[in-house]
Amino acid sequence: MICCTNTNTALYFSSIDEIPSETLKELGCLDNLYFNPKFLKSLEINHPKITFSYIILVDNLKNPIAFASLKIVDFHLKSIKDNFDFLKNIGRKLHLFPETKPLKLLICGNTFVSGEHGVFIKNNQDKKAVVKELAASIYHFVNSDKKLKKQIDAFLIKDFVDASINITNKLKLYNYHPFSVEPNMVLKLDTNWLNFDDYLASLKTKFRVKAKKAFKLSKELVIEDVTLASIENILPKIKSLYTKVATNASFNLVDFNLETYISLKEKLGENYILKTYCLNGEVVGFISGVINKNALDAHFVGIDYRLNRAYAIYQRMLYNYIEIAIKNNLNTINYGRTASEIKSSVGATPQNLTMYLRHKKTIKNKILKLFLQRVQPTPFQQKFPFKKQS
């Protein structure tokens, strides 16, 4: 537990349980599941290696105006793979990253979900002023604790869409450096799609044929909803499948503990989606996701890669997310990062995301700026599967 003295503008908490429910109600953030204690507590209790903390910003009358979620994690350089290898090597040569120990990283944001899920600002607030106050509050949080001040190597504030950049660029005043990351792939649902057949009818012939082929190849898969009664028996298998996907990822901040699914299903009920894909009685894949307001956010998936091509497992998963969203009358599917090209083939388009990073040491932070200029999202061929609107 980190003990941080409150200031005139910021209140600090080491657990979501410490924040008065009235404060969160006054902020108006409870409708957003990512700022709801049910969701945040599920993450807390299942990730003991992560240090969770929270900041409530207040105005001159001590009324809450913003809520920020902080996490302190150990980031291992070896988790950077593939096309990021050259960045890892440059980072080592410039001594930006520790050689023999993990980088101690303070993150403002959700480490398990892409998007603006780390900072909630109450309506009718000066957002630029709030962002500046947030940066100052994070600085106070670290520097008021001698042990923490010594431990923290860098600060990361994530993920912001293009529409927010004019606001979040105020972080540059506090020596944060922006850089682009892999986009969130977003599918906006047509209001005319009343069922999946309507979605299929909106596709160009080539992509409709591809979808029907995926359903044909995957027809032997048995897709089942995971319930609280069945989840414990299924966890060992889906952990194995998740590990395979996580191992192949080019970049992971932290590993997700799948035991969290038990708590999420218990606390969120039907708003948390968890399905398995079985072949001959064996689990060969799973999907997870959360219904948040009018959006379906795809979370983690697991795939038996040996069977993926033959049974079109992953492609079927992408279509199943669409079926779920249509059934629940949702507006948007956030497919997240990775596999951008195949996600674009079902209709998703890239939503640019920007993060802000700052090294605690002045000289290294100046070098970091040059380093981050080399960080670019992986290019991909965007597909356009829909017929042109008449």
From TrEMBL:
<protein>
    <submittedName>
        <fullName>GNAT family N-acetyltransferase</fullName>
    </submittedName>
</protein>
<dbReference type="InterPro" id="IPR016181">
    <property type="entry name" value="Acyl_CoA_acyltransferase"/>
</dbReference>
